[in-house]
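Postdoc handover notes: sequence design on the structure in folder B. Input tokens:
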């Protein structure tokens, strides 16, 4: 059994590495198809000699295969190149914007976890009450409304009409409120939906019905029997949301001018700052792959059925 588990773990890790290589290759190809960065950086008035000299300086005059192999070699060594715009290490530029993105994503995920789990439990326990129906409607709205539309509505109401909160920037905690609520809306709806289903299935299970028959109080059954069994799928969804939070912040950071990685990504794409774009995609993709791998390995370790199916 132990050897089988090791094979399953090795298989999952190998698939994660293949996905990582494919992602690195895709980013390289897409950025080469997006246009000539030299023309964007030097402007339309640059002469042919100036463009040729700059291309040689950046290494863009070499064959595409040579560039790709050099890129892979640098990635393996931990070097992601030098930013065309900032003239600094690309990974260092990305890491300098990382704390603000982490503050935003952690705030949004905390808010989403609290409201989503509480709303899902309320919708499952009181499905016909006003609270249950309100949570169900809120879940549908949260899943349907795009982030950019919700961001604009919140900005119009709380920043322009009521003048309670700033429209953008990162000067104080008040600047964090609207971006965090916008990011939390969709994640909260997803969590509420899965929580409602998981709690509802636990409430309909035989052991819970037997507990009701023995006269155990409802809240005791909910806390000691229902919620622990419903926690596994909820934690799985929360893990996937954490993995996608960094990439999902791009739209919100751009709308609210939040100086994080998402805003840097949009700016770098416009400037054709290829090393920075590659570093952001590689960092975000690696975070997503590692999160999924961790969730997958956790399931394999905890659930014996998944071990036998994989082997």
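Designed sequence:
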């Amino acid at each position: 059994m132990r050897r089988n588990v090791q094979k399953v773990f090795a298989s999952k890790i190998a698939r994660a590495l293949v996905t990582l290589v494919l992602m690195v290759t895709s980013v390289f190809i897409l950025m080469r198809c997006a246009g000539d960065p030299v023309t964007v950086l030097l402007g339309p008035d640059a002469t042919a000699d100036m463009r040729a000299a700059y291309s040689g300086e950046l290494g863009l005059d070499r064959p595409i295969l040579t560039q790709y192999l050099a890129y892979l070699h640098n990635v393996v060594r931990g070097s992601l190149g030098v930013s065309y715009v900032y003239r600094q290490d690309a990974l260092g530029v990305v890491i300098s914007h990382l704390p603000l993105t982490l503050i935003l994503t952690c705030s949004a995920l905390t808010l989403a976890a609290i409201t989503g789990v509480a709303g899902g439990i309320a919708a499952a326990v009181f499905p016909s009450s006003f609270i249950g129906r309100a949570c169900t409607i809120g879940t549908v709205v949260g899943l349907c409304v795009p982030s950019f539309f919700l961001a604009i509505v919140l900005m119009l109401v709380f920043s322009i009409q009521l003048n309670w909160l700033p429209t953008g920037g990162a000067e104080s905690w008040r600047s964090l409120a609207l971006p965090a609520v916008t990011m939390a809306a969709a994640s909260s709806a997803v969590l509420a939906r899965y929580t409602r289903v998981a709690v509802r299935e636990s409430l309909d299970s035989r052991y819970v019905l037997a507990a009701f028959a023995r006269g155990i109080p409802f809240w005791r059954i909910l806390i000691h029997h229902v919620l622990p069994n419903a926690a596994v799928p909820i934690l799985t969804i929360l893990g996937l949301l954490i993995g996608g939070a960094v990439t999902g912040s791009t739209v919100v950071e751009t709308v609210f001018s939040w100086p994080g990685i998402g805003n840097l990504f949009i700016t770098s794409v416009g400037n054709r700052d290829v090393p920075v774009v590659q570093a952001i995609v590689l960092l975000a993709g690696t975070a997503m792959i590692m999160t999924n791998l961790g969730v997958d390995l956790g399931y394999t370790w905890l659930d014996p059925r998944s071990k036998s199916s994989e082997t």
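Context for whoever picks this up: The two ends are 10 Å apart (CA to CA). Don't rerun without checking with the PI first.
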